[in-house]
Amino acid sequence: MAFRINISYRFQEIAITFLTIAGFAGTYWSFYPGLMTSDSVDQFEQAQRFAFSDWHPPIMALIWHYLDRLSAGTVGLFALILGLYWSGFWLLAVRFARSRPSLGYLTLLAAFSPMLVTIPAMLWKDSLVFSCFLSASGLLAASASRTGIRRAVLITPALLLLLTGALARHNAMLAAAPLLLLAVRRAPLQTSGAQASHAKASHAQATYAKASGARVAGAEILRLGVIILATVAATSLASWLLNRHALDARQTGVANSLMAFDIVGVAARTGSNGLPGSWSGDEQHRIINDCYEPWAWDSLSWGRCAFVRERLVASGHWQHGLRDPWLTAIASHPRAYISHRFAYARMLLRPLPASFPQPEPISRTYGFTANGGYRAIAQTVSAFSGAPIIADLWRPGLWVAFAMATCVVAGLRGRRHLKSCQTKSCLAKSCQAMSCQAMSRQAGYFALSGLLYALPLVVVGVASEFRYVYWTIGAVFIATLILASDWLAERVSRRAGALPSLPDPPLVPAEPLRA
């Protein structure tokens, strides 16, 4: 019997591997050698010159510089992002297949979905963050069944990937913190009733019985808070050392984009221009009545009101910084500021176009052509993005709400498992109940990671592009699969009259699902 189960599991693993290779080959052919927009071109030029600015975090351009030396052009970074994308999905699919083969295939199916398949096509820092975090999650999932040096071999590259992703976007450092808990907190091994001794079960039962739900939640919140603070501090230090000292990145005053956006948003509601400097009557009128767009600050720099940034740079106010006039505008008109931020947040709930951005001409210079694969994927994405109900999934703000809801569900599931461990009926199966409680906790980590990634966009965002919630989508998806596996295992166990336990392949130690 064990032999047949092992053969079945190995067949699932081979099938998933084959589908992953096919997916990688198909997307590599369709998107080769990667699509570039103005942001990509800017970072590619920095990579070629080995001269960086801080408008975009320089880590991607730094990686691109060395990949360009290995393979000139865009193909090196494209292959890296695409490889991390598919390897992450493969690791997670293999892991989920141990619980339910259908969950493994569903995980891989998501990689082909119209919402996600375009992510590795674009040479954006958003795509790099998604692929780094996804692959790191897969490595952490694979490390769950290892101990000692084998576990360290998997966790070490996962931590490097998390650091790379955290350095690639300013808000990503917050999202990396909950994922770190997957590395520093190893869930208890799941053992069957035949394998678990009565003494171990009794010890686990006693431990859970002493811990109230409030104490467990409080300890978890405290632990998470410490990890977030430590992650932000360590990543900020690493970013400062890399950008200011190692690379000597030119300071561009990128934070001024937020401040200018807020000041003009307040001006549009109060009729008072808070931007520093001398402005003509016509410019004052335009700043108050024409320049404000609630969905982005772009009009102040590249659009119809580009004179705003040009004048601030020419007068030196941009270089000096807009912090003081920004704080003055908020303090003088708090209601107008809150109204402006709410107007921006509402823009996140509007559906955004899902069609591919038009690649810059430099993409064609390095070999990109709109082949049959590209056209088929583009048409599929456009069809889905225009379909009723499905089109709503292209609302960035909706994924923030999904992340919040998933956090709540994970917390409720964990609380339920904790209560079941505190009952006498749990004594003989406490190890399995502990595993299920750990699964809910891990789902919460992923959901919280996605929430922390997108939440700064709501509070201090300056644009509302869909790519800004890439990782939020991935994190919510992983958390949902973990919760689905937990729920399915509990449903099966109820029919069998036992506590939930996850089937694992024979010949390896059983453990809770980890993703």
Automatic annotation (TrEMBL):
Keywords: Membrane, Transmembrane, Transmembrane helix
Top-level taxon: Bacteria
Entry protein name: Uncharacterized protein
Keyword Protein transport: no
Transmembrane segments: 12-31, 70-91, 103-122, 128-145, 152-172, 221-242, 443-462, 468-489
